[in-house]
Write a structure and sequence with these properties.
By secondary structure, the chain is α+β, with helices and mostly antiparallel strands. The protein has a single domain, classed as Alpha-Beta Plaits (2-Layer Sandwich), CATH 3.30.70. It is 26% helix and 25% strand. The protein is built from four helices and eight strands; from the N terminus they run βαβββαβββααβ. It is globular and about 40 Å long.
Length: 161
């Protein structure tokens, strides 16, 4: 079964632009997976503990035959290859890969929650997502444009490469 998924990418350590760019290439190499498109890169303010560097974020759209848990395992393997350390919740990181959406599925397990539970309040997810899927509808029926109206862009800005 082929699933359409959206993946959020973020980094604020060890050359974040390179981390996110490399991760996009690595997504394209996942087994049974095709990278369809991705947003441009954005700079965003950090969420979480104070004193962190700014983040670089993007959203990618893929098609995959992997199950959501298999996809999660693959994404976590990419994070580990980028030396991801889970020390402080919402702390700085070399790479963060989040499954935002899987088709119109709702998943609620201990390891995985889809749609991503915070995506509706994060401009660094919604605006890149809108670049690649402006007509997107969430499993609960809300349209992406509705979420954008409730989540100002703030200081989010595209990164010129």
């Amino acid at each position: 079964m082929i699933r359409r998924c959206f993946i959020g990418l973020g980094s604020n350590l060890d050359e974040p632009l390179k981390q996110v760019s490399d991760a996009l290439r690595e997504l394209a190499q996942l087994p049974q997976t095709k990278l369809l498109r991705h947003s441009q890169l954005f700079r965003s303010d950090p969420v979480g503990p104070a004193g962190q560097p700014d983040y670089i974020n993007a959203v990618a759209e893929i098609e995959t035959e992997l199950t959501p848990i298999q996809l999660l395992d693959q994404l976590q393997a990419i994070e580990q290859a980028h030396q991801r350390r889970r020390i402080v919740h919402w702390g700085p990181r070399t790479l963060d890969l989040d499954i935002l959406l899987v088709d119109s599925e709702t998943i609620a397990t201990e390891r995985l929650k889809v749609p991503h539970p915070y995506m509706h309040e994060r401009e660094f997810v919604l605006y890149p997502l809108a670049q690649i899927a402006p007509d997107l509808k969430l499993p609960d029926g809300r349209r992406l444009e509705q979420l954008l109206e409730q989540c100002p862009m703030g200081t989010l800005e595209p990164v010129a490469l």
